[in-house]
Amino acid sequence: MPNITHHSGVTEMTANHQNNLIDYQLELGQTIGDISRAWRYQMNRRLKPFGLNLSTRQVLIQLYRHPQGLMQRDLARKLGIESPTLVRLLDILEEKEWIQRTILASDKRCKYAILTPKANEQLKIIEKLSKELRAEMMQGLSRSEISSATAVMRKMKNRLLPD
């Protein structure tokens, strides 16, 4: 039986439990950041020989998921970046002929970005490298561990991004 002493209406055991919880929350938050930075570093290192980086990867993947194309403002929103940053990325991808930008005839202010057939090879490379890195990162984890971690991360994401 733990030794419980009362202090200001709160037991020491409860205070210690709360401190441990805060420590665990801090460690989890730091670990999430560390994983994100490590993923970016490793993906950038692996994509560099192909003239890609994580930012251009994200643009190409979003456009692949939306074969009809996306308005630039919607693409920026999906990527969580500002329009000027997206424009620079689109300039790079357009120069490589991996995307094409078009303007709606009905509204000249609406610019769309779509993938070109030339992007298909880059998407195959991206998928291969992403799959390899995911496998390395999760090596030795059981299906149950991955499922539990995914459920926890999804809950946290939904609290930050409710829509």
Features:
163 residues; single chain; globular; three-stranded antiparallel beta sheet; 64% helix; two-stranded antiparallel sheet; mainly alpha; Arc Repressor Mutant, subunit A
Strand order of the largest sheet: 3-5-4
Measured distance between first and last alpha carbons: 46 Å
- SSE run: EEHHEHHEEHH
- Write down the CATH class: Mainly Alpha
What count of domains describes the coordinates? 1
Q: Could you estimate the helical fraction of the residues in percent? A: 55-70%
3D architecture notes:
The chain has about 160 residues and is mostly helical. It has one domain (about 10-160): Arc Repressor Mutant, subunit A (Orthogonal Bundle), CATH 1.10.10. It contains 6 helices and 5 strands. It has helices at about 10-45, 55-65, 70-80, 85-95, 120-135, 145-160, and strands spanning about 5, 10, 70, 100-105, 110-115. It has a 3-stranded antiparallel sheet. Strands 1-2 form a two-stranded antiparallel sheet. A hairpin with a 7-residue loop joins strand 4 and strand 5 (about 110-115). The chain starts with 5 loop residues before the first strand and ends with a helix. The mean pLDDT is about 90.
